[in-house]
Amino acid sequence: MKIRLTQIISLLLILSSCKSLQRTTSRNNASAAQTTASKKTASKFLNEVAIRPGEKNSNYIVHSSPASGSTKSVNSNSSSFNLEKADWLQVKYAIMTDMPVEQLNNLTLLKQMDHWMGTRYCLGGDDEDCIDCSAFTQTLLHSVYGIDIPRTAKEQFTFATRIEDRDLEEGDLVFFRTGRSITHVGMYVGNYKFIHAATSTGVAITDLNDAYWGRKYAGAGRVMH
């Protein structure tokens, strides 16, 4: 009987030691995993710039996402894109538009956007001191794509060929109504973002699902054939 009791006590001590060892090992493993994860995060800081498309405000969606197989989707070369060799303007506007850096490959457009960004709005203006919406799209299309379009938003709406929202591409025009007629225009840059000269912000990038502009949206048109 004494032998059995001794054996039982010894077995309990062994089991208790094993459990303590398991807890110690688990804590050590968790600590090691956290250290490794921390090192990985630090070493990949540049590659984790926020460049993925952001979520949309479903309350003001005015068009659907690009269909599968659309030419606007990331091509097969994106996997080999070297972020460290990207132009600083690509990184800057990737963050501002929530777009992948490799999709912002029109440096002429990015330079023009950066040149005009923040320019104040004034009705009838057409230079760096102040500019209105239609003069801005007219200037941007001419300087980037070599395309000449009419002067006013209403004329540009008539001049452009209507396209579906799902077919929007860089360089297309987006139109807005603040009354019965077309009163505002901007140029689409990708990921539901457009650049325009607005009375409140001057030249700026805005989302088509914006609470204000989403309700004023009148459609899109293409002038590049």
Description:
The protein is globular, with a radius of gyration of 28 Å. Mean pLDDT is 77; it is low at 1-6, 11-33 and 35-78. The protein has 225 residues and is an alpha+beta fold. A hairpin with a 3-residue loop joins strand 4 (193-198) and strand 5. The protein is built from 6 helices and 6 strands; from the N terminus they run αααααβββββαβ.
Strand order of the largest sheet: 1-6-2-3-4-5
Overall body shape: globular
Q: Give the strand content.
A: 15-25%
Please provide the ordered H/E string of secondary-structure elements.
HHHHHEEEEEHE
Rg (C-alpha, Å): 28 Å
Low-confidence stretches: 1-6, 11-33, 35-78
How many strand units? 6
Distance between the termini: 99 Å
Sheet having the most strands: 6 strands, antiparallel
Oligomer: single chain
Instruction: State the helix count.
Output: 6
Estimated helix fraction:
25-40%
Q: Give me the secondary-structure category.
A: alpha+beta
Average pLDDT over all residues? 77
